[in-house]
């Protein structure tokens, strides 16, 4: 066969969405797919609408928290959820980076039931341990798909 799988296709959409991010350090993309294998939402990490990329900081470290990106950036997962065109009940989220605890809460509340992710580089940090704990309690399944991420990055 000379065609990609559904997982490869939807993760490719997530990876392509990540390329829209202006974050110089971590570009993340997400794609929400319903039970009929239809894309119902996409998103990437960036500042809220109306918050200029030239005014708000992209830095990761500064003595003043307000001079970093962290209090301002909207993650790819909430952006994809907010951009959804229909019900998220029983949908699948494809995301290039395993979700943090704040995104996990939104994912669970939205009705998403499965997560496919590429990278889990923050696996041992508490906020990501909390994500897995909440996903497990809420019976949200998740699976790694790291080899696709490598292939997509190589092709760009």
Helix count?
5
Uncertain stretches of 5 or more adjacent residues: 152-156
β-sheet strand percentage = 15-25%
Question: What radius of gyration results from the CA coordinates?
Answer: 15 Å
- How much is the average pLDDT? 93
SSE sequence, one letter per element: HEEHEHEHEH
Q: Judging from the principal axes of the Cα atoms, what is the shape? A: globular
- Sheet of most strands: 5 strands, mixed
The protein's oligomeric status is single chain
- How many runs of DSSP E, i.e. beta strands? 5
Q: Structural class per helix/strand content?
A: alpha/beta
Strand order of the largest sheet: 2-1-3-4-5
CA-to-CA gap between the ends?
A: 23 Å
* Fraction of helical residues: 25-40%
Brief account:
With 156 residues, the protein is an alpha/beta fold. The protein has 5 helices and 5 strands.
């Amino acid at each position: 066969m000379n065609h990609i799988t559904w997982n490869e296709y939807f993760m490719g959409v997530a990876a392509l969405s990540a390329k829209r991010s202006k974050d110089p350090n971590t570009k993340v993309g997400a794609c929400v797919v319903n039970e009929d294998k239809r894309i119902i939402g996409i998103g990437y990490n960036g500042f809220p609408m109306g918050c200029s990329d030239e005014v708000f900081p992209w830095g990761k470290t500064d003595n003043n928290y307000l001079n970093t990106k962290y209090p301002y950036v909207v993650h790819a997962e909430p952006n994809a959820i907010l951009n959804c065109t229909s019900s998220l009940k029983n949908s699948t989220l494809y995301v290039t980076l395993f979700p943090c605890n704040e995104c996990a809460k939104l994912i669970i509340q939205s009705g998403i039931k499965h997560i496919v992710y590429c990278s889990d580089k923050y696996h041992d940090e508490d906020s990501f341990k909390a994500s897995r704990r909440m996903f497990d309690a809420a019976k949200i399944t998740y699976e790694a798909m790291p080899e696709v991420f490598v292939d997509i990055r190589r092709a760009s």
